[in-house]
């Protein structure tokens, strides 16, 4: 924890060291192969096969806070590493960094919803849009493809509904896809896929994140789901032979947002002035401005939100390294102004995203609870 840098109460992404994009290159090194040089800050023990279990929404702080509910996963903390998500700390951005080894400014999935350049439309990276080619949106060769070319069998074990989805194609193409829907068949599929050596088997579970959004991370519902995930992870470890390594990671953490800490753009005409499109999500907004309005938008949002959020121009956010080096093609996908919430605040846009009023747990910003992720090796 002491070597994770903080800046103005925010946690900086540890790109090139211990970010989610560094995981697969580190696994490759542990399997005896090299992708993009040394993995630097992330050093994993050697093995012939690796299973990476990604638990959506399991922040490192949440796991520490509720260690008694997840005894197996918590038992791995003392001998493991804490890493970071990228910015924003959201699923589509994180999963694409994981699958490509690139920073968000490189792979181009820079938010849950982002502007399709040249239009007034948003791309929802989880649902996707049939008019947007995922290979054109994210054209870089994935780490999965490159590992397969090196003779490493790479498998993705995930729900059947995600096969061929825009996000799967953008982030995880090149792997053998195994569609499963239940815990038992998921474990069996992982054991079978990882039997070949060398191999990397990636398995995903999104139930904890869904529960946090719906009920909050301080709810009994979330704690029950965490206990179930812990049991699943332990079952998976027990089902795997001893010579196969299990690496448990997350894509981001989560914070609960109380009703009195929510600002709705739709209820404040001043906040909507000069903006033609609002993207991102409630904890991390992309604001796309009409010509010449950026300075006024920044001034208005800073004055209104005060210490509840950091309001930056695109150039300022890039200058802070939030997205890593940004490809010129990716630049217009980032808001002219970006808004990263502090504490437990959130900026809702009920006109464009009415479902946000129903969410309790949220993520996307740069607080420790959202950014810090466990990298647990067993």
TrEMBL record:
Record PANTHER family: BIS(5'-ADENOSYL)-TRIPHOSPHATASE, ECTONUCLEOTIDE PYROPHOSPHATASE/PHOSPHODIESTERASE
Give the range the annotation lists for the signal sequence.
none
What is the designated name of this protein? Answer: Alkaline phosphatase family protein
Matching InterPro entries: Alkaline_phosphatase_core_sf, Phosphodiest/P_Trfase
């Amino acid at each position: 924890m002491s070597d994770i840098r903080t800046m103005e109460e925010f946690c900086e992404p540890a790109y090139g060291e211990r970010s989610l994009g560094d995981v697969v290159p580190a696994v490759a090194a542990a399997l005896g192969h090299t992708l993009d040089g040394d993995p630097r800050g992330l050093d994993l023990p050697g093995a012939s096969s690796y299973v990476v279990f990604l638990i959506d929404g399991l922040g490192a702080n949440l796991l520490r806070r509720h260690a008694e509910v997840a005894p197996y996963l918590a038992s791995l903390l003392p001998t493991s590493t804490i890493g970071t998500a990228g910015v924003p700390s959201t699923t589509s951005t994180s999963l694409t960094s994981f699958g490509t080894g690139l920073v968000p400014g490189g792979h181009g999935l820079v938010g849950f919803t982002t502007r399709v350049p040249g239009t007034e439309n948003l791309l929802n990276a989880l649902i996707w849009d049939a008019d947007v080619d995922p290979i054109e949106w994210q054209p870089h060769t994935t780490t999965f493809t490159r590992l397969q070319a090196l003779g490493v069998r790479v498998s993705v074990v995930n729900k059947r509904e995600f096969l061929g989805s825009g996000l799967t194609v953008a982030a995880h193409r090149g792997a053998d896809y195994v569609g499963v829907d239940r815990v038992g068949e998921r474990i069996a599929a992982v054991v079978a896929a990882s039997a070949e050596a060398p191999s990397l088997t990636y398995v995903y579970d999104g139930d904890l994140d869904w529960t946090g959004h719906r009920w909050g991370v301080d709810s009994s519902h979330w704690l029950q789901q965490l206990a179930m995930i812990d049991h699943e992870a332990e079952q998976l470890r027990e089902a795997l032979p001893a010579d196969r390594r299990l690496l448990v990671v997350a894509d981001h953490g989560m914070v609960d947002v109380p009703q009195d800490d929510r600002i709705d753009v739709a209820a404040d005409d001043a906040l909507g002035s000069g903006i033609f499109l609002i993207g991102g999500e409630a904890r991390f907004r992309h604001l796309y401005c009409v010509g010449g309005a950026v300075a006024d938008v920044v001034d208005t949002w800073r004055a209104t939100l005060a210490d509840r959020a950091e309001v930056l121009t695109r150039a300022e956010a890039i200058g802070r390294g939030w997205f890593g080096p940004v490809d010129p093609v990716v630049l217009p996908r980032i808001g002219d102004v970006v808004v990263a919430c502090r504490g437990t605040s959130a900026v809702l846009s009920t006109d464009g995203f009415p479902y946000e009023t129903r969410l309790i747990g949220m993520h996307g910003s740069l607080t420790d609870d959202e950014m810090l992720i466990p990298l647990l090796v067993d």
